[in-house]
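Record type: monomer structure entry
Structure origin: computed from sequence
Chain ID: A
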Amino acid sequence: MNIWNKLEKPFLILAPMEGVTDVIFRQVVAKAGRPDLFFTEFTNVSSYASEKGRANALERLEIVPTDKPIIAQIWGKNPEHFAETVKALSSLGFAGVDLNFGCPDKNVNRAGGGAAMIKTPDLAVECLREARKNTDLPVSVKTRLGWKDPEEFKTWLPILLKEHPAALTVHLRTKKEMSKVPAHYEIIPEIVKLRAELSPETKLIINGDIKDKAHALELYEKYPEIDGFMIGRGVFSNPYCFTNHIPSRDELMELLDLHLDLYEEYSKNHRVSYEPLKHFYKIYINNFPGASDLRAKLMETHSIEEARAVLENLC
């Protein structure tokens, strides 16, 4: 069954964020209060299509039971590679496939993927069609309003909607805007109208500056035509953002301890670096007396053992 048709409005999704929403952090979020749907970090279809890169691609697509239902997000610019990749995804336990046409990363865009697809709409459509032809899973798209001008949505989104994707997630900024300006909520009514006219069966998800469940419900009350909301950076402020719970300092520290445990377990069978783990410390250690000093000490550590020693001294 199409996962998008099983979700009750307004459903909540954890946005795919490179270097953040990996298999470890998703388990932490699930413990705090899981969203209705997870996405993986994005995976390059050309890596999967390469004998040399396939192992790395499959590692990025690794999931655990608490992830489900989960959507595999993929990116690239080669239609044949999209076709080859999606053929494998249905056997890996995913509920759907999402094509990333919105990532603003310079390296991704230089390779012709992510938001660069906005500048090559014919290629984007070809990739979308190849993906859909080669899988029984529902195929969705995540994108931005445009490359430079927010008004580009008037020509870009109809191109996608005419292909009738299972779902369309719109980050309410352009590639050029990155996250430097507020999300353009004022454009939502026009996007809703386009969806109604061109592909009413497509689920519409809004992304950009959504803080938590309460904020999503507030927006839903104002725009009831929207099907779901995707929360990204809001999880940094509160890993319980998919609930109405405001965590205590002790609860946050327990989540950090869980994150470290999961990291240690994962590292037994995977080659991982300690440094990226430091990016997560600000999620758990904030908004309490001494948080800044504690974070500073943790940022000076070079291993799990050193981090645990700092935390034990705190206790």
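Annotation 1: The first strand starts at residue 11 and ends at 14.
Annotation 2: DSSP finds 14 helices and nine strands in the chain.
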